[in-house]
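Section 5.1 Outputs to date
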Amino acid sequence: MNIRHTARACLLFLVSAAGMYSSVSAQVLLPKPRQLILHEGSFTTNRGVSISDPTSSNLLASLFTSDATATATVTVKIVEASELGTFDYELAGFDNEGYKLDVAQDAITITAATKTGAIRAAQTLMQLAA
């Protein structure tokens, strides 16, 4: 399954740690994604993953069992905000929280403008796995 999440897209199916499939709709995610894209397959959460995260997010690390030799990967990419295609209402003192979340059978990719955006993506993953 591929999941895309920005302030505009998200995932529909995720295999939970218990191995159960759960349908996810935009109504249960906060904040609500602007677009939902469903793809075949699922990402199994009860396995070790290789994590590449330049932000060193403790929240993201707490979601997975880190295994540098695992074939499943979780990758965080920090990019210019203009590359995201997300909307950000600028407020003084607050980082851009925009992100995209792509989930495939063996890979999760978080693309964000800031560490705050990567943390928001990890929070969405927590909601999806619950």
